[in-house]
Amino acid sequence: AIADLSRYTRRNKEMKWDDEAQVHEQIGRFCVCFEQACRSMEVCIRTILDNQGLTNERVHEILMADFTAEPLRRLLQNLVGEVLVKNSQDAKLCSKVFNKVQELISERNGIVHSKWFILGTKSNVGAKEVITFGEKLHANMKGAATKKPKLYRTTLEKDIAKCKEVSTLLALLMRCLLGLRKLDECFQLDKGQLTWKKDALKPVELNV
Predict the structure, then answer these.
(1) How far apart are CA 156 and CA 25, in angstroms?
(2) Which parts of 52-116 fold into alpha helices (H)?
(3) Cα torsion for 159, 160, 166, 171, to the nearest 10°?
(4) Angle CA(105)–CA(183)–CA(194) in degrees, nearest 5?
(5) What count of other Cβ atoms lies within 10 Å of the Cβ of residue 40?
(6) H or E segment and range at residue 188
């Protein structure tokens, strides 16, 4: 079995990790970055509630206390549609922003809710390496449909980068909610793909 694993990892180098602690560290980094994105959603919701006259922060906390990531996304998207979207272009831009959020939530659920099995192997030079396999129980109308995800170093790094990207998108959305920017000053579509304008993150001069 170990020989089979060694042959498998030689063909799938990105699945190999230096040790078990490195696997845990990367998953932990992802989870921290993901929760920062969730915090950004909460702050956007609080801002909207504030703008609409509900300024009691303790009431904000009560309303969102039991919300996980997906309910937060749905609530924020609905609120943004009500208070920020003015035309069809705004609607397209916001839809793309929240598609990014939803994709990240799906990635997070796959990582956090999978059971990861870490197996030790040996490299060609005798140093210990580990490989990680996952299992996520699932069923559909056809019966059992358990998923067998794999944890790649490069994929997890990309997921961490996605968390940071979503946090940036939400920071730009916050600027729009505060009236500092318009949606089309922050976001644009390039061949159907959402991109954000770096100038939109520059400090804004306030007329006080």
Answers:
(1) 11
(2) 57-64, 69-83, 88-112
(3) 180
(4) 50
(5) 21
(6) strand 187-190
The answer to whether 46 touches 60, Cβ cutoff 8 Å, is: yes
- CA separation, residue 181 to residues 84, 114, 143, 171, 196 (Å): 11, 40, 50, 11, 13
Cβ atoms < 10 Å from Cβ of 98: 22
Q: What is the rounded distance in angstroms from the CA atom of residue 98 to the CA atom of residue 70?
A: 11
Q: What is the pLDDT of residue 155?
A: 87
Q: 75 is written with which tokens?
A: 């609530």
**What does pTM read for this prediction?**
0.85
Share of the chain above pLDDT 70, in %: 87
Helix (H, G, I), strand (E, B) or coil at 84: coil
The strand pairing partners of 117, in sequence order, are 133
DSSP secondary structure letters along 14-35 = GGEES-HHHHHHHHHHHHHHHH
The enclosing H or E element of 139 equals strand 139-140
